[in-house]
Fold this protein.
Amino acid sequence: MSDSIVSIRNVTKAFPGGVTAVDNVSLDIAQNEFFALLGPSGCGKTTLLRMISGLETPTGGQIIIGGEDMAYTPPNKRPTNMVFQSYAVFPHMTVEQNVGYGLKVTGVASDEIKRRVGEALEMVKLTALAKRKPDQMSGGQRQRVALARALVKRPKVLLLDEPLSALDAKLRDDMRMELTRLQETVGITFIIVTHDQDEALSMASRIAVMDRGAVQQVATPTELYEQPKTRFVADFIGKVNLIEARVHRQIGRKIDCELKGVGRMELASDNLVGGQVAVAVRPEKLKIATSEPSTAIRVQGKVRDVAYYGDTSHVVIEAADGLDLSVNVQNDTRLGGSGVERGQSVWVSWASEDSIVLTE
Amino acid sequence: MAAQLKPGQGPLDYGSRTWLKVLFAAIFFVLYAPIITLVAFSFNTDKRGVVWRGFTLDNYTKAWNNASLIEALTNSLVIAVIATVIATVLGALTALLMWRFRFPFKGAYEGFMALPIVIPEICMGVALLLFFVSSGMMGLFVALPWPLNLGNIIFAHVTFCFPFVAVVVRSRLVGFNRQLEEASKDLGASEWQTFWSIIVPFMKPGLIAGALLAFTLSLDDFVITFFTSGPETVTFPVKVYSLVRRGVSPEINAASTVLIVITVVATVLAMKLQAPPKADKG
Amino acid sequence: MENWKQNPRVFWTLGIPPSLWLLAFFIIPLGFLFVMSFSDKAMVDGQVSITGYDYLTGFTNYIRAFDSLYLGIMWKSVWISALATALCLLTAYPIAFGICFAKDKWKPLLLLLVVLPFWINLLIRTYALIAVFRTQGYLNKILGWVGLGPYEMLYNNFAVVFGLVYVYMPFMVLPLYATIERLDKSYLEASLDLGGSQFQTFMRVTVPLTMPGIISGIILVFIPCLGSFLTPDLLGGANALMIGNVIERQFKAANDWPFGSALSFLLMYATFGALALRYLFTLRSKGVDV
C-alpha cells in the first residue's frame, strides 16, 4: 500500500532454542491510523512493537517505515518514538528536562527546545509541574510526561506499550479519551499494544489480533466483533457461543449443516468448505422465550445459571447434546431482572444471519 | 547510513559485542596471569624461578619439611578456627539484635559496629599492639603454653571478623518471614524454643557463610597479625612475608599455592551458601 | 521490629557480649592510641627511654606530622590512592557493565571469576606481581624476546599504583555490578528511542543513575588504598613510601610510638573525612540541600 506509514513484511523473530516469538507476520499500517496489536500475553505483540521501534531486530523480513526498510536501523535513527509500559521517565531529571531530552541529544537549539517543550506540556496539561521531579508525581502524571516527551519529537509513528494497564478504572477512561483526542489533534499514527480487548475496541480504528506469533485477523473493531474469521478471534473478542457443526453439503452460497444440540439448518457462509466447522453466535443475539417461538432456529433447554451484573444478566442454558448457550439479557425493567430463574425450562432462538460460520 | 544492527541483535545487547569480549579477556588475563604463573612455578625445579626447568613437587616437600613454615600454618589454622567460632557467635548476636529490636541511637550503634570494617587495618593493628603491651596482656599470653599464647592474635582477629559475620547473617535474616515466629509462639513454644527450632535453622546458611568469611579473613590477615604477633606466635602470612622480604623463591610459591587453595575452596563454599534460596520445590 | 523495652532480657542478652567485646578490644585500644598520640617518650637519666612514656604532654607529635617531610608523604599517599582509585573505576566499570549485559547463565560464573582473586591473600597477590615486574621477572623476559627493555618496573610509584589497582579492582566491581544490575534498562531504551547515541545514553542516563554505586565503589577502594602498607612495602621500596609504611616504621624500627599514634589518628581522620563526603553526597542526591 502506498500510503502505509509502516509496512511489516514477513517479519520473523526466532530465538536460539526453537522459540519463535513472531512468525512470518505481514501488516500494513496506514498514515494517521490508530492501530492496535491485540492478543494474550506471549502472542508476540510486544516483540513486534519493539521491532518497529528498533529496540529489537527481526531475524528475517523487512520493516518499512516511511518508505525505507529500517529493520536493522538503530532506534535512535528511526522516526518512531515509544511510550513505555513503565513510562521510563528519567528519575534524575525534572519534567522539563525529561521532555526536552530527545531534542537536546539531537542538537536542537535551546530556545527552540524551550518553546517546543512548553507546547508539549500544554498539550498534556502538565505546564504547572514543569520543574517537578518524577518521584513527586503520580503514575498518571508520569505517563503524561512520557507522552509529551515522545510527542515533542514529532515522530511519524507513536508506539504505546500497554498504555492503560497500570491505571485504575477512572483514570483509564480519562486517559482513553485523552489518547483518542491527542491522536486526532496531533495527526500522527498511533500503534498500541494491549491484551485488553476493551482498550483496543474502544480506541483503535483497526486492530490486528495475534496469537502465538501470528496474525489471526486484521480488521476494524466492528468487523472483528461481528465477522470474526477464526475461533480464536471469535473467542478472544467479547463473549461467544461456539457450536460444533458438521457440513453435509454446499448449496450455492449456503451450507447445509447439522449443529450439535440444535439441529439441521442452512446457513450463509463465505467459507465454502465441507467437513467440521464451528458456528459462532454472540450472546446478545440470542433471545429467551418461555414458550416456543416461531423462528427458524429454536432450541429448548433448562436455565443452569443466572449471573446478575446490574445492567445485564448472563444466563446459561443447558440444551441437548451437552450444548451450553450463553445469553446476554438486558435488564430493561427495574424490578424484573432477567426474567428467568435457575431450573426454568425455556426456549432460545436467534436469527440465521446472526450465525457466523468459522472453519479455523 | 548509520551503523546497522545485526539480525536478532538489539541495541542493548552489549554482551555480544566484540569490543566488550576483548576487554574482558584482556582484564581477566592481567588479573589471573600473575597468580597462575605463581602457582605454575611452584612446580618448577629452577631455584630462581623464571625459566621453566622441569616439573617437580620438591618445593612442596621442602615447604612441608620447613618446620617453621608448618608451625606458622598450624598457628594460622588454629587461630582461624577459634576466632571463627567466637566471631560467628558474636556476629549472630549482633545480627539478631539489629534485626529484631528498635532502640534509641540504633543508627549510631550500627555505625559503631561498622567501625572495625571501616578503619584502616594498620590503625587497628597498632592500637591493639599498644593495648596488649600496655595492659600487660602481651606479656601474659606469650608466657602461656601453646595454643594459649595465640590468645592476643585470636582476640584481635575476632574483633575485626565479627562485624563482617554480622553483616552476612543480618542480610540473611532480612528474608525471614516473621509470621513463622509468631506461629511458633501461637502454638505454645517459648522464646528460647522458637529461637532454636525456627530462627536458627533459617539463619544456618547465613551463619555458615559468615563463618567461612570469618575463616578466610582470619587466615588471610596480615597487617593486624603483623603487629600483634611475636616471634613465638608467627602466622602463615607473616611467615611468608618474612620469606618474601628475602627474595623470590619457588618454596614461597608452593606455600602460597597451598594458601590459595584453602582460601578458594572456602570462598566458593561461602558464595554457594550465600546465594538466595531457590524457590521451594514443592 | 519490636521496641527493646518489650523484651529487655533478650535485648541485653543479644546486645551485651558484642558491645563489651568491641569496647574492650576496639574502643579501649583506640583510646590508648589516642592518649599516646598526645604523649612523648620519657627521658630517663638524660636519655630517651625505650619503654617509658610521659603521657598527655601536648601536640608535639601532631605538629611534627605536619612537617614538610611527612606532609609530603601524606600528600603522596593521597594522590597515589586517588590515581589507583580512578584506574580501578575505569577498569571495573566496563567489567561490571559487561557482566550485567551478559547472558544470564554466564553471570554468576563471570562474577565469581572477577571476585575470586580478591579473596586470595593480599600478600600472595602482591608477591606474584614482584615476580612479574622485577628486572629478571616475566614481563621483562617477554619484552626481551621482542628486543625491548629491561625496564625498571619495580620499587617505584608505577609498581605501587599498579599493585593497588591489581589488588583492589575486583573489590570495586561488586558495588558497581549491584547498582548497574538494579538499573531499569528501559531508561536506556528510552534514551535510545528518543534519539540519544550510545555515548550520550551512557553519559546522560547510565552514569548519573549509577552514581551511588560509583561513589560506594570509590570509597570502598580509596580508604584501603590510603591506609595500605603491604603493597607499597613490597613493591615500592624506598622510593614509594606511603603513610602506612611510615606508621609501621614508628612502631617497629624507629620505636617512636607516640608519633606513630598521631599519624595513625591523622589517617583515621582522613578516612572519616572521605566517609563524611560520601554521606553528604548521598544526602544531596536524595534532594536534601546540603
Remarks:
- The first helix of chain C runs from residue 8 to 37.
- Chain C has one domain: 67-285.
- The two ends of chain C are 31 Å apart (CA to CA).
- Chain C touches chain A through 18 residues (CB under 8 Å).
